[in-house]
Amino acid sequence: MPTELEELVGFIGHPNPQIRKLATENLVPYSTSQPSIFKSEELLPVKHLKFLINDHPTIAEHALTILVNLTADSKILEYVATDDRFLGTLLSYLVVPAEPNANVLAMLLANMAKWDGLKSIAARKQDPPKELQSNELVLNQLLDLFVKGADGTYNEHANFDYLAYVFADLSKHAEIRQFFLTKQDYDGDVPLNKLRVFTEHKSDIRRKGVASTIKNVAFDVPAHPAFLDEGQVNILPYILLPITGNEEYDVEETMEMLPELQLLPPDKQRDPDPSIVQTHVETLTLLTTTRVGRDLMRRVNVYPIIRETHLRVDDEGVREACERLVQVLMRDEAEPEAEAAAESDEDDRIVEV
């Protein structure tokens, strides 16, 4: 005989919208405390929840919240993420300017991006709303949503912060990295350039997701010249500023730094999240893979910033990352065999995030 909770789960697909509303609303907390109740009858409750994103906005919000919680389970994640029709529905709703559940949709998409098969989104297309001023490629639409969401100019109900996590997970795949580095015809911009400006955003979610995306794309070593070129991506200022505090440097040290890092205000603060600081330092280490990258970092005096970061951030991961970078920057370039071995060792220790 089913328990009261199991009966409540059965009401998710009830024909009466009031009953569906009460059922989904009351089941939200159980999606974290007792997720197994949604796995009955070969995930039939999850199937109903997917359909409910088409329901009344309040019911859809409850259903989406439950799905966000349930997709922490790998079996449910695969069941949801492999449903191409569901993905299409989610993406079509996400770009609607007045969609009230856009943020929860973005959260669910962020979870779905953890399934490796979602990299197929690289080739996915849909008609964009004219308000978005994007093109038919879904990835471009997501980027434009992310940019416009930062100041709420597109959808008053959404900031689209969680799309940063979508980009971070997708950028583990080579085809997505290539997208981020390829100039788009419709606006003449390189997608990574749209993300780099958010490394100092007030949103922890944005900063963390963007930092991870930049690091993952930096695994594409042939793209490093574009990363470092002032006329292209010019990524160094956007990585160094978040890890720079209000420390005072000698005049000689300061004058050799990038212009963006000179004459910073006295209230300049280093990113308060050590995991973000560590990610940026590891990105710098990846960018030392080539001789050009190492020479540039020496020329613009990256070392003093890393020295102060190591001294002032009380976090073992940050300190270890700083030490690895310093070892590379201080290494004698006249030892090519030792250099190659050290670079191979760095690849083993720095992983995609």
TrEMBL record:
Pfam families, per the entry: DUF383, DUF384
Domain Protein HGH1 N-terminal span(s) in chain numbering: 94-277
Biased composition annotated in UniProt, kind: Acidic residues: 334-353
Residue numbers spanned by region Disordered: 333-353
Gene3D superfamilies (UniProt xref): Leucine-rich Repeat Variant
Domain of life: Eukaryota
Name of the molecule in the record: Protein HGH1 homolog
Lineage: Eukaryota, Fungi, Dikarya, Ascomycota, Pezizomycotina
